[in-house]
Amino acid sequence: MEHGRTVLTEAVRKVQLLKIDGYCATSVMKHSDYIKSKWNVDGHEWEVRIHPNYYNNNNHWDPWMAVKLILHGEPRRNKLKVNLSCRLVDTSHRLDPSAEKSLSHVFPSCDGCTVAVMSRDIIPSSGYVVNDSLTVQCTITVLKELADIEVPANTEAPPLPPSDLERHFGELWQGQRGADVTFVLDTRERFLAHKAILAARSPVFMAEFFGGMNEKSSQSVRIEDMEASVFKGQASLHLH
User: Fold this and answer.
1) Single pTM value for the model
2) Which of 147, 179, 195, 212 has its CA 20 to 30 A from that of 173?
3) 164-238 is classed CATH 3.30.565.10
4) What Gene3D superfamilies does this protein's entry cite (predicted)?
C-alpha cells in the first residue's frame, strides 16, 4: 500500500484581542455606529468593525454585539475565501471564552460579512465586562489555493521508524513495575514478572496463566531444579 501526503491549500491566520474601555457608554450608539480596527492579512487591508448595538435580520427588537469584516481595495485574486471568528474573552482568566461564532465569506463583496457574537442584554451579566471593559477576540483566516500539483503514481511511503517494543518490554522486566506474578526458585530467590507479556510471547506461559493449568489465578509460581541465572536468561528470551 502506498502512502503520501500532498498539501492542497494554505491558510494565513491572524488573531487579535480588541478591548473596549468604557463599555457602558456604547449603549447610546446606534445600529449603524461602530468601533473600527484596521488589519493587514495576506497582503490585504481589512477593517474590523465592532457594532455594540447591531440589529440582525433574524431579530429586529433585541440588539446584539456584532463584528463586521470589510475588505479595502481590490483583492489580489478572484474569489477570496475568508473566515471571521469571534468570541468574548475574560482577560483575568476567571471565565472560559464564550461560544465562538464564525462565518465564511467570499470577497469581493459590498456588504462584507457580519458575525453576531452575543445579545446586548446578556453581556452585562455574562461576567465578560470587567471594570467597564469588554474584550473581543477576533480571528481572520484567509484561504490560499496552491497551484495544481501532480502527484506521482509511484509515491513511496515514508519509512517507518524502528520498533522500540523490545526495549520497552526489557525496561518493564527490569523495573518490575506493575508485575502481577512471582516466580520462586528452590534457592528461594524471587523474580517478579508480568503475566500478560509472558503469555503474549510464549504459548507455554499462555496456557499456564490463562489456560486450564493450576497457575491460572495464582500470584506465585514455583520453579524447581533451575538456577537463577538460567531462569532469568530463559525468561528474558521471551522478551526479544
Assistant:
1) 0.58
2) 212
3) no
4) Apoptosis, Tumor Necrosis Factor Receptor Associated Protein 2, Chain A (2.60.210.10), Potassium Channel Kv1.1, Chain A (3.30.710.10)
